[in-house]
Structure formats: C-alpha cells, structure tokens
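Mods, move this if it's the wrong board.
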Amino acid sequence: MGSIATYIADKAEKKKQTPAKWIESNLKNFGRYWVSSHIGRYTHPDVALHLHDDSVPTGKGYLTTADAKVQQDIFVDGGSAFMTIASFLVSKFSQKETIAEQKDDLEAKTAWQYFCEDSPFIRREIESLGIGYETLREKILHIQISKVPEKSDTRLKQVYFPILDHDGEYHLLSILPPSVLMHELTNRIRTAFQVQKKCRDQKSEYYGGPYQTFPDLTVVCFGGANVQNISVRNSSLGMQALPSLPPCLTGRKIKMPKGNFFFDSLYWRRFSDMLSNLDTLFRDQRHNLEMRERREDIILDFVEAVLYEANRLQNLPAGWSKDTELSDEQAVWLDAAYGSQRQDDTDWIWPVCLDFARWLVNTYGRFCHDENLKEVSLSDVEVQAFASTMEDVLKQEVREG
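Not the wrong board. Structure tokens:
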C-alpha cells in the first residue's frame, strides 16, 4: 500500500518512460481485460472461460458473489505480459501519509474502487503526474464485463445433472471457482491478522483488545512458476483458505469394567432420553401390537448403544480381562483373546443377555428415582423379553462373524 502517484512513477521509471507515456502505452491492452467474478483458469491454466456475477436484485434466496459485495477480479486474455494496468487497478492504496500509517490502514482501497467512487484522492494523485484523469477514468469504467459463456470446456470440473421427465437428457453444469470470494476471504483473514498484531502490541492503543485467530490455514498458489498466469489478483503470496479437514476429536475414554461390564462401563445418565421414552411407553395402558413394536424399537436402541461400547473393548489388546473379575461369559464376549471361542461356542450369549436385561431394569429404576417418578413395576416377563431382544442381535453378530 502507498501513494498511487508513487506506484505509477516507479513503474514508468523502470520502463524509462514518463508516467503519462506509461499509462498511454498500456491503455492499448484494455481490449484484453474483462471484469470477472469466476475464472476458469483456477481449475486449469489453459481454460479461457470466465464470467461476471452481477445478479440484480440480490437476495433471492441464494447466496451469490453479488451478495458478498467483494472487490472485482480482472481476467486478462494473453497472460502476464498484458497485466500491467490490471495489476494496478486491483492493488490497494492508502490515503495515509506516513509509511507506518499506511502499513496498518485497514480502510485502504483498490485503485479500481477509488475510480468507481470518483474519489478526490485518486484525482489528485493522477493529475499530479500530468495525466488526464477524466479520460483515464472513463476508459477504466468501460472495461468489458464478462458474459456467460456459450459453451463449456472439457478441462473444467463438470456435473451432469439429469432433467426430470426427460429420459436420457441432462444439463451440463461447469464449475467455475469464484475467484473474488477466494480473494475476499484472504483479505479478511489478513485484516484479522493486522488487528491481532495491534491487540498484542503493548505500544498500540488497541493492546489487550479482542481479536480473531485462524489456526491451520492453507496457502493456495496457482499458475506454476508465474502465478500471474492465472489472474491479476493471485499475488505471489497466494490465497489463504480455511482448513477443510475434519476436526480432531478426542476419543472418549474407555471405562474398563472390573466385575460387570453393564454396571461398570455404562453411565446410566447417557441413556436418559431413551429411558424417558421407555417410561412413557410403560405408562401407556394400551397393550396392542403397535405398542409391543414400539417397545421393541426402544430396546433395540439400548442394545445398539451397548454394543458400541462392547465393540470398543473388543478392539483392545487381547487378554485385558485377566486382571478383572468379569464373569466367564462377559469375558468371552468382550475380550479378543476369546474370539474363536466366542464364535464356536455360543453358551455365553444368554447369560450376557440376562445381565443386560437386569441392568436395564435397574437403570430404569434409577431414572425414575432421579426424576421423582413413581417407578412402573417390572416382572420377570419383561426381563425375559429384554434379554430375548438382545439375544437375537448377538446371535446374528455371531452368524455374520
């Protein structure tokens, strides 16, 4: 960031030209410029497709680049050799006077924005170089606007979307990356870093203030050796993207059983919602097929949750149960050391299922006490029914190996 006049003067000096001559020699490239929001080259450098999303009015129920109010990108036909003015237009400039102020200026704008706003700042800067401001501004504001292409390109990412009631016909959807949104995200992240720096600088008036941080960012660069082969907004720093990896979740600690898996490893409050549903069912006076099926579904929910915890123990190194007082049946079920026995001899299944049923009855009683509810009395009939439901599931597991 800095003075617009200084930027143009430095570029002109490198070409051994006056600023006015430098501007004039580059204006001939305006026919190669297209204001664009989506540029196909971000998918493949040789793709020339580009379009400009200027949806009006915005807010039709879909989020578009037009809704985001982002700075425009410029597609240049021909590559980096013709990007001089385009690079100038998308560069940010500050109206601050000192270098320190310019460095921390969060309100700096692009030359393109200053021209669009007809800012007195850019008028002064341009006219101080002996360049006709009005003529230059008129040409800049009449840069071509990219239109929707008439055909796609095989090198783009594509989706073939079937048309309803038109057998064998489809729409071809070509995915063009929204380059302006990628750059807007990058700009906002870098602005957030500037704020963070100020809030952590003891010499700053903003020291100690709140700020945002973005860990594990990814820097994306396009265009091989010359990143400007993609578009003028892809600077040498590339673009920053938020991480797209799944979150790192801390695995829930396994509570090892000492004497009984159901009472030692299963925390009953985890089942509060299912217990509430079971209690509602018990209090319903109807005893028909529908109610029995609903009860079966609820018990199966318990079984599924229990088997998940059992599977975690089964995946531990074999032999862990030797240091416990588990029953022989539960040890065979839960310890990988008995994997073969578990498959060959199923005598362990019914005792385990009875343990499950007794745990469920006990857990239901604790739930009612905790909720100040009068417990519905359950008999051996219910215990046998709960055990039978789990038995069917365990036998199926054994059959499937």
